[in-house]
Structure formats: structure tokens, C-alpha cells
Amino acid sequence: MKNLKLIFILFFSLSVLTACGNDNTAEDLIIGEVEVIEDVMEEKSEAMEAEIEVAMKAQESIPVETPKVEEEPEVVQEPAKEPTPVVKEPSGALTIESGSITYSVEKGWLNKPTETVTGTTSSVSGSGTLNNGVLSVNAEINAKNFNSGSGGRDNHVAGLFSGNVKVTGNSIALSSTFAMLNITINGVTSTVPFVISISDQGDTVSASGNGSFKFSTFNIEPPSIANLYTTGDSVKMNFSVTASKN
Fold first, then answer.
1. Where does a domain end: 61, 77, 101?
2. Potential cystine with 209: which of 26, 62, 79, 196 (Cβ 3.0-4.6 Å)?
3. Which portions of the chain are predicted below pLDDT 50?
4. Per-residue DSSP letters for 72-93?
């Protein structure tokens, strides 16, 4: 509105000046109008400065938000896992250092069982191998050294054998509870099942077990005296041996 007023005043002044020519009255009128225009312009300038000042103060009062910087998640590196050590089973050669072999048979009178006869010997030797938890053994038993408590009977038993009794076993796992052992008596070999237990004790390996076979399997006539005292055909055999690691 003020701008329109100023334009109107200027237009009116020019019209008066044109109409009056060099009249002093017109000149005075125009000067007065100019002064009015200057006052209006000054007021307008002051008002604009006031508005600017108010705007700046308002701007200063507005809090400036600092942009948030998202933190990258921390990457936690897991410690490197050490490889699981491979535990190797003990291996190497074995030597039988000690052992005990026991047989037991049923003795009868007129073919009727009367008692169980047992004989024991510690005359056992041999060797073996232990590779990656697998055992092999090769043992010999001096069958002429069994002791049953009766000299006459022991001499009779010794006469049944032409040489040592050989026992071999192959590919027997340390954790096995059953094994097939090859028994050789008087040149005849037969595979006999045994229930076994094996224990690795660090410097030594111990094994024990029991099985049974028949005299007749090895072409042996069961002992008898005048067919009055007889011995059954079945023989039970128990063993316990300890071998050292070489």
C-alpha cells in the first residue's frame, strides 16, 4: 500500500509541475511531497531493519540439531581354534614276560563225573605287535609243565603232547571282548572262540580270557585208567598274560 501511495504522489507531483510551469507554488508543493516520500522511505527502511533483526533473533533461538552418526557395529573376531590333536594309539613290538595257563577237565568213575581236575603252568612265552590299537600275538605253552597236584596224573598229561602248544591271534582290537584264537596241538590247528579282556597299562599290555575245545579235535584220546577212571572229552582253558612294550 505504501508503494502505491508513493507512486500516486510522484504522479500527482509531475502533473502539477507540468500544469504550473515555473510557478514557485508548484515547486514548493513538489518539495513538500518529496520530503513526505523521504519520510515514508525512512520509515519503511527502519521497519525492514526491525523485521530482519527479529528474524535473525528467531533463527538464533532455533536449536541446531547435530546429525547423529550411526556407529558401525564392532566386529568381534573369534579366537582361532587350535586343531584337535590326533591321539595315536600306542604301537610297537611286544614280548610276553609272564603268564598263567590253566586247564580243567571232568574226571569220572564209570563214566559218571566225580570231580573237576585242574592243572596250571606258568611256562608261557612269545611275542606280539600292537599297531594303531590292533593286537597280534604268537605264544607257546610248555604243556609238559602242568601241575595238577598229582605227579602221576601230570606225567600222564605230559605224555599227551608231542611238543609245545601254540596259540596265535591276529587283528584283535584292544577294545575287543571276543577273539578267535588258533590253537595248534600235535601238529593239528583249530580255531577256538575265546572271551577276552585286554588292558593297555602304558608300558605293558595285559590280556586274559577263557574258552574250551575237545581232545578229539586234536586227535587226542581222553585220559583214562582201565576205562574205570575216565576224563571227559571237553577241556576248558583259562589264560592270563602280560607283555612288555619294546
1. 61
2. 196
3. 2, 4, 6, 16-17, 20, 22, 86-89
4. PPP-PPPPPPPPPP--PPP-EE
71-107 burial, b at 16+ Cβ within 10 Å, e below that, comes to eeeeeeeeeeeeeeeeeeeeeeebebeebebbbbbbb
Q: What is the pLDDT of residues 172-223, one digit of tens each?
A: 999 999 999 999 999 999 999 999 999 999 999 999 999 999 999 999 998 8
Tell how far CA 236 is from the center of its chain.
44
pTM: 0.61
CATH number (domain holding residue 157): 2.40.128.110
CA distance 51 to 33: 27
Single residue among 61, 83, 109 that ends a domain in this structure: 61
Helix (H, G, I), strand (E, B), or coil: what is residue 161? coil
Instruction: State whether 100 and 186 are in the same domain.
Output: yes
Nearest to 207 by CA among 103, 124, 110, 116: 124
